């Protein structure tokens, strides 16, 4: 809501033609003012695809320095049907009809400022639209026969803004990939992959090399977490994850695990440890990592970034 018109540069001019979108007539204005009502809201009207109404303070909006003035505001309506991140930018004018001269006093921001309506700010206008002294002076023509007419025209600006929201999600739901590798001693492929799990808004899988990869082949178990479909990410998009890679000890809680903090991208799709643990330790029956010829490998993601886009 506006306050001091001089400070904020309110522009007042007269014109011959009526407002483009809405006229609001009040009969027996003095009786309305005497009821003590703080404000009266008109019925809704449509302008450029949106619903609006006028909010009239016949004795001024005292909360916004409107004492001694008529206060008038433009209010957007039916916003519950708009998108979650709705925003409407408009240029608007409010009017008071001079009924003697058949001219409209036009009130608008002096600098032609565009006003932004959104879920936290659903009304804009003028606390000091016109002084009550000037309004009540019959020579000015605003109040004739205890009748007055207000008006509005509203011109929304086209908006094609897109929103992107980056969230860092701590302890996301279903955040652990459990990969049980049965018949471990008989596995003969170079590597094995777990099923794909969605954690946050990304898809993940484990890749395990039972006999190690690259220079640790035949020496160590290699374990990696992979961002699935990373090649489908938009250019420059990255996904952050804080996670633990773990081989479960099936005899006690002395698991082998390492913590990782990593940004994944289309050029960095996986990250882990080629030398996660030696094969000697893995296959030692007394260590408890292989039980009934099964090894259990896990990835627990405790923090992950996710992106939502809105239009």
TrEMBL record:
SMART domains: MATH. InterPro entries: MATH/TRAF_dom (IPR002083), TRAF-like (IPR008974). PROSITE patterns: MATH. Residues 19-154, 174-301 form the MATH domain. Gene3D superfamilies: Apoptosis, Tumor Necrosis Factor Receptor Associated Protein 2, Chain A. Transmembrane segments: none annotated. SUPFAM superfamilies: TRAF domain-like. This is MATH domain-containing protein. It comes from Gossypium tomentosum.
